[in-house]
Amino acid sequence: GKPSCECNTCYQPPDCSQLSLDCAADADSGNPLFLEPYWQEHAASSAVVVAGWHRMSYTTTGKNFISLELERHIRMLHLMVGNAVADDRFIVFGSGSTQLLYALIHALSQGQNSSGPASVVASIPYYPPYRMQTDLFDSKLAEWKGVTSSWANESSSIGSMKDFIEFVTSPNNPDGLLKHSVLSGSSSIYDRAYYWPHFTAIPAPADEDVMIFTTSKLSGHASSRFGWALIKDKDVYMRTVDYIQLNTMGVSRDTQLRILKLFKVILGELGGESDIFAFGHKTMSERWSKLNQVVSRSKRFSLQTIPPQYCKYFKTISDPSPAYGWLKCEMEEDGECSAVLRAAGIIGREGSMFEADDRHVRLSLLKTQDDFDQLLQKMEALISNYESIM
Ligand code: PMP
Questions:
Q1: What is the pLDDT of residue 227?
Q2: Ligand 1 site, residue 99, Cβ cutoff 6 A
Q3: What is the DSSP letter of 6?
């Protein structure tokens, strides 16, 4: 058994083998711990030791606060995985992709040369920080203007959408679907956090003008706070760098060192037995198929449908493997879906958080195996209790 200090709170000491029955399954956050076993298998080769005198300077090997070696490895990773065109693109590093969201709103809105603020929009269901950051900064440059669909209908009467900045999350958080921009003539920020073979088929390299990525969902190292943007236009790039310069003077050099080490391990294992994407996709697709089997036994609930697609990375049609289940309560009386789940000991994230309806709940599938097993167990119990009283 595991030592008691490492027990998940739902398992009991001394050896963490006993699951406490009254403990809720927490499927709320997107904590990417499904990759922890992968790094346990690569503990020595992925370790970093930094001497006290090392990397003390503000300066970096590359311009604008980036390590050239890390930049080179990022370009190589995109090329080998085939998920994004990274050649001839400028790269900006951020403290997680979270920092880059507003850096890019700043950069794109300043370029629009319009009299009023830029209109920032996203399509329902969307990742809440796009709206929350725009509201928080409350700037003269950019204003949250709600959901894309309401503007798409009006675009013919307004004419050009050049003052709009559209967030497109592809695959989407929460529903895992590949999305495209809706407004023509607007600027788009493509959030590609989940565009890795763990979570989706890769039909073609992404090639948008502005794309953001994060190591949180690639290697699973959310704690290091590392993301990057690939930017086509030089002026947009320069204004993004201005923001990062004033905001944090670049990403921690310690973090850059750690990420470089991790990416070297990932690259070294690609295509082999210990390919991180083979591991990630196997884990996520197994979880998805198990959850689907349970949910499909009942008419009370449904999950999103993810069409199988050819994946250029695996060179086959790959089974769906989304990061989240976007669960729907189908019965009239279950309008508050999260309350139905909570009564059965399952904590999910309400649909209203994503500006969707409360018939939907997001269930995180990318936490630890224990977390997932508990979720499945509670879901099975909920569904069999319900079916037996019907
Ligand atoms: N974009 C999306 C769609 C996400 O789901 C997340 C994390 N949940 C982020 C951005 C931010 O990730 P991070 O700041 O850890 O890079």
A1: 98
A2: no
A3: G
- Asked if 103 and 243 count as a contact pair (C-beta separation under 8 A), the reply is yes
- What DSSP line would sit under 236-261, residue for residue? HHHHHHHHHHHHTSSS-HHHHHHHHH
Cα(175) to centroid of ligand 1, in Å? Answer: 14
Q: Quick one: DSSP state of residue 79?
A: H
Per DSSP (E only), the strands in the chain are 11-12, 18-19, 25-26, 90-95, 118-122, 142-147, 164-169, 187-191, 210-214, 226-231, 301-302, 309-311, 316-318, 324-329, 346-347, 349-350, 360-364
Q: What pLDDT, in 10s, does the model give residues 193-245?
A: 999 999 999 999 999 999 999 999 999 999 999 999 999 999 999 999 999 99
Q: Kindly give the number of the ligand 1 atom that is closest to the alpha carbon of 99.
A: 14
Q: Which of 95, 127, 168 to mutate to test the pocket of ligand 1 (most atoms within 8 A of CB)?
A: 127
Query: Can you list the domains of the chain with their CATH numbers?
Result: 4-40+275-389 (3.90.1150.10), 68-269 (3.40.640.10)
Assembly ipTM: 0.99
* Of 233, 169, 226, residue with least CA distance to 199: 169
* Cis, bond preceding 174 (omega within 30 deg of 0): yes
131-156 pLDDT tens trace: 999 999 999 999 999 888 778 777 65
Whole-model pTM: value is 0.94
Q: What is the pLDDT of residue 258?
A: 98
Q: Is 97 in the pocket of ligand 1 (CB under 6 A)?
A: yes
